[in-house]
Amino acid sequence: MKVMAQIAMVMNLDKCIGCHTCSVTCKQAWTNREGTEYMWFNNVETRPGVGYPKGWEDQDTWRGGWERTASGRLRPRSGGRLRRLVNIFANPEMPTVEDYYEPWTYEYDKLLSAPKDSPALPVARAKSQLTGEYMPTIKWGPNWDDDLGGSMETLQQDPIVEAMSTKVRTDIESAFMFYLPRICEHCLNPTCVSACPSGAMYKRTEDGIVLVDQDACRGWRMCVSACPYKKVYFNHATGKAEKCTLCYPRLEVGEPTVCSETCVGRLRYLGVLLYDADRVSQAAAVKDPQDLYMAQREILLNPHDPEVVAGARAEGVPDNWIEAAQASPIWDLIDTYEVALPLHPEYRTMPMVWYIPPLSPVVDEVAAAGLDGENYKVLLTAVSDMRIPLEYLAGLFTAGETNTVELVLRRLAAMRSHMRDVRLGREPDPAIAAAVG
Ligand code: SF4
Ligand code: SF4
Predict the structure, then answer these.
(1) What is the per-residue pLDDT across 314-333, written as a single tens digit (0 to 9) for each?
(2) Based on CB atoms within 10 Å of each CB, which residue in 150, 173, 217, 294 is the most buried?
(3) Which residues' Cβ are closer than 6 Å to ligand 1?
(4) ipTM of the assembly?
């Protein structure tokens, strides 16, 4: 057993209000320079949606796809665009600026002189930050799907919708959404590092943060192609790759990341995990994608176990890091309570940003009967009838395996109900614990 330390994050999606404060403060701190206009080290996606860059989860079909050779190796599918480009440039095709978006700004200095009867806000004209040209229409942005949440209120007052068929109205009324904030996953098995021909991408041994050595980077962009989360960006001004640094200069002086500190929903838990570095490759190679979540969890080590503590000291993990691992809530959220799940474990990079999936209102007869949606009996019995389909959440967090997600939602529902009893001074109901095992 080789015990190493990893800074990791757990985000509680129920608490994200989609305000983008994290993205904006990150941008002000890190990507407010020429060449980084289109980069959002932190972005917040509205789900379901295509994300940023557009279609990042769908690269299999997006770029021609992959196929297995007779020996079982993966290679770009014959005849696909990907194969042709690999052959020509020895680098799979990357997202274009259109897949991210053409960044723009407004002529803020002309706001006061804008016509007062202008039909749209903001009234200043948009200008491309890449070409400096005016943009008559903005066709795409990093969170284009954001406004869906307001649609029902608007649509209910719209006479056209009033006249729609019941089927269309039902479809609209059963729409769901939630927010998914994303940063680099600082993976235990980072493909960006494996793919870099210059040795510029590296994973720090002391804390697991993945960084780009700007002097060593030669601009091959293999990291951009290789990262399945599309969290490495190419700076067109410097010709180098850039990515989220997990705010390491702040962490080194005991400050949290900018996104954690400024998060309005207080949903980002930052902490230290201890893991067995000897088992990473083996866990990443588990055959069935639906077993990867458990394989990833099993290489994490209990920071309260004396054998783990001794192993960490033997590998040079400082005592204050071991204490941080013991004090951090993230171990409990991931392992003790089993409510935090990795994003797309099937990508096999062992991502280290974990997510507590969102609860959502129950639909159907439970709600129609006027039952209390905060009552655990309602929540526990109606987990599979929640507005956000279990299958959708399982597609994000467990490679499609729904039982784990259902159990997590039951635990969250039970906790919500329990805390409600506690806050109201009621006797906690022992049936709650029994219901979630
Ligand atoms: Fe590398 Fe992408 Fe993993 Fe970040 S998310 S460590 S950029 S593979
Ligand atoms: Fe969500 Fe927090 Fe970011 Fe606001 S600041 S969008 S609440 S993660």
Answers:
(1) 999 999 999 999 999 999 99
(2) 217
(3) 184-187, 190-192, 210, 227, 229, 231-232, 243, 349
(4) 0.95
Q: Please give the average per-residue pLDDT across 154-158, as a whole number.
A: 53
β-strands 210-212, 232-235: how paired?
A: unpaired
- The confidence score (pLDDT) of residue 175 equals 76
Q: Which ligand is nearest to the CA of 269?
A: 2
pLDDT, tens digit, 9 for 90 and up, residues 271-285: 999 999 999 999 999
* Ligand closest to CA 267: 2
Nearest atom (ligand 2) to Cα of 44: 6
- Residue 207 to residues 35, 186, 318, 374, 431, Cα–Cα distance (Å): 28, 10, 11, 40, 41
Prediction pTM value: 0.87
Angle (CA) 21-25-26 rounded to 5° is 115
Strand 353-356, strand 3-12: pairing: parallel
Q: Strand 178-182 to strand 240-243: parallel, antiparallel, or no bridges (unpaired)? A: unpaired
What are residue 100's phi and psi, to 5 degrees?
Answer: -80, -75
